[in-house]
Amino acid sequence: MISLPPHLEMHDNRFAAMVHPMSTLDVIAEGFTWTEGPVWFGDHDCLLFSDIPSQRILRWSEREGVSVYRERSGFNNGNTRDVQGRLIGCRHGERDVVRTEIDGSLTVLADSFDGKRLNSPNDVVVSSDNAIWFTDPTYGIISNFEGYRSDPEQSARNVYRLSPDGELKVVASDFSQPNGLCFSPDETTLYIAESGSSHDDSVPAVIRKLAVDGANLRDKGVFAEIDRGLPDGMRCDTFGNLWSSAADGVHCFDSEGTRLGKILVPQVVSNLCFGGADGHRIFITATTSVYRVFVDVRGAEAWVRGRG
Ligand code: MG
What's the 238 CA to ligand 1 centre distance in angstroms? Predict the structure, then answer.
């Protein structure tokens, strides 16, 4: 019988090789309101994450702890990096997707579709062809807590793809509230969280699987169901396992959707990313805090893998 520390819950023996009996769940930052959008910058040895209601992006490093990276972030939520390593963010307040240039200036990449404002871009991923894929639920406009209250102009809560030449197209339009998203390591599958149960109990709390066919998606049905709360941010490791946020922590699924285990976190988890020393850490944004835990796998995203 393998003995694991109390923050690790094994549902399948394969999970034991992905964690470690001496791992700890460390709080590395706390005192925020609703943390989200973790993204690792290995080239700066630091983590960036959002505190949406306080309109800040924070920076954490092992050496320097927490500092403010950006004030008045426009209720920035999800973050990622493009192929050039630039920060790509979703702003509820501005209702746009924005890129931070090397000189620090901001370039708005998308703020409307079909002549109407986006709802409130939530989370974003970049494929290796530098296309930007993002979700557009209404969480940032249903109150003034995470944005500015407003009526949606879009008729649906879409998932969009922004091509490198600037063409914005809808790639999925049948979600109640699309939320976190991530690619499988080979980018043949895009996983998208359905978090509509936050406002409608009849919507299942599931992660859906969509086949990527160039610039299009093909629905492959439900990948996995979240048994505590709802799915939000997600990341894949290099083996194709999917790590998803949930109310009780981070749930790990194999590529077939079998739950292998959980990292139990004492606060509701919003998102996660891989990073840290040799990429063997998961950083978890959870309500008022950010947690870090060792894992014996690495993230599938290029900036986490680094030279590996
Ligand atoms: Mg989200």
Answer: 22
